[in-house]
Amino acid sequence: MITELVSNAVDHSRLPSIRVIVSRPSANRVRLGVVDRSRTLPILDAALSGDELRGRGLILVDTLTEEWGTELYRWGKQVWAELKEVSA
User: In this model, does residue 49 exceed pLDDT 80?
Assistant: First the structure.
């Protein structure tokens, strides 16, 4: 997940730095977030056929995470995804 979020930030923000945040919003979830200085929101394009070489990152994030979203800031945004801990 973090690879997809980071590569999206690097590809789309085109700015010199990003910040990676890992937090635990509850006992059984981990939140991975990437903060950049771009205010352009990511778009989930579910209409992709699967043959494209690019553009599937958010589809993977959407499929493999419990939930994901964005938080807009005055100076940029954070795109985050939450993973639910699986008990053995």
Answer: no
Work out the average pLDDT over 26-47. Answer: 89
Q: Write down the pTM of the prediction.
A: 0.84
User: What amino acid occupies position 52?
Assistant: E
- 5 neighbors 87 (Cβ within 8 angstroms): no
Whether residue 44 has pLDDT greater than 70: yes
In 16-58 the beta strands, taken as DSSP E runs, fall at 19-26, 29-36
Sign of torsion over alpha carbons 72, 63, 30, 1: negative
Contacts of 35 (CB under 8 A, 6+ apart): 18, 19, 20, 21, 73, 76, 77, 78
In contact, 25 and 75? CB cutoff 8 Å: no
Supply the CATH classification number for the domain 2-84. 3.30.565.10
What is residue 50's predicted lDDT score, i.e. its pLDDT?
Answer: 58
